[in-house]
Amino acid sequence: HSLNRNASLDGIAFNTIACSNGHYYLGMDNGLIILDGNWQPIENELTALMQNTRIRHVITDGNGAVWLATYSSLGTICYQPDTGHMTVYNADIGMRECFTRTLLERKDGTIAAGTSDGFYLLRDGRVLQYFGSKDGLLNTTILCFAEDESGTLYIGTDGGGMYSLTGDTLTLHGSN
After folding, report:
1. CA dist., res. 43 & res. 111, Å (int)
2. Gap between the Cα atoms of 73 and 111, Å rounded
3. 24 — phi, psi (to 5°)?
4. Is the overall model pTM greater than 0.85, yes or no?
5. Using only C-alpha atoms, what is the Rg of the chain?
């Protein structure tokens, strides 16, 4: 038998997977499955909250927290597996657009969250910065991030080119 069959995962489409502390977090268009190290499902407050929610990306940060990019009004969720504590980053804390597509932990521990209306830098339960059309993004649909050794953040858009963020300076690379 395969692990998929043992965990009843055959035929399920996953958007993303991340590992934290021996558990696997599998995001789908209709929720989250958490599997333990023996591929047995775990149901908890996070899986209950994510029921019928589209999850586009899951990452773990350097402290073992699990970050979920939900494509819903829930926004971005930071889940602490050890305590079950959740921090929700959405309109309630100042995000204009909560439908999150992609995440990246930056070298300083800040989380970059890409949405259809730009990107946010998140940490400690609040929005540190937001970059959108007023900041020079010609296409605000963010699909991916990368960061180099110097801390420059690279932002890939949906057909609008690539940008870089160095300090507070956002630069378009290429022409539009």
Report:
1. 26
2. 18
3. -110, 130
4. yes
5. 17
